[in-house]
Amino acid sequence: MNLKSTPVRLGLVAVVSAVALAGWLAWSEDTVRPAGLVINPADMTLVAEGKRIYAKTCASCHGADLKGQPDWRTRGPDGLLPAPPHDETGHTWHHGDGQLFVLMREGIAALAPPGYRTAMPAYKGVLSDREIVAVLAYIKSTWPEQIRRRQAEITRHVKAEPSGS
To answer: Reduced to 3 states, what is the DSSP secondary structure of residue 142?
Structure first.
């Protein structure tokens, strides 16, 4: 094979470019940057994936219907708050998308004051970044339109990075 011929060189450049692009796409889909993150609850593929993951990973605490645990605003005997609802009655929508992502991936300690205790686990290493985004897209898809608009406004104004990023 003559590597000096133009068609062969163009073919090699195309193959190398395709491999590089595929690698970049694979990296970018599972490496989410919280700052500026906007999660689309209208992406039905993402929402369906998130619903499945939520049922398997989150519903045991937050409820299959996203209603949370009873008395979620009152600390239990262990000093921990029960799991809050993720529907419009809870406070999930009071946080921007980047904050929600960080809370889920890194755990509440990433954004809470030092020493804050919680039963909420961090999902880094358990769920991929894409799976976390999918769960959040599902949760957001269940909110009434006026709540989604208010949460979108919060997302535009609040940036979140875990401490140490």
So the answer is: coil
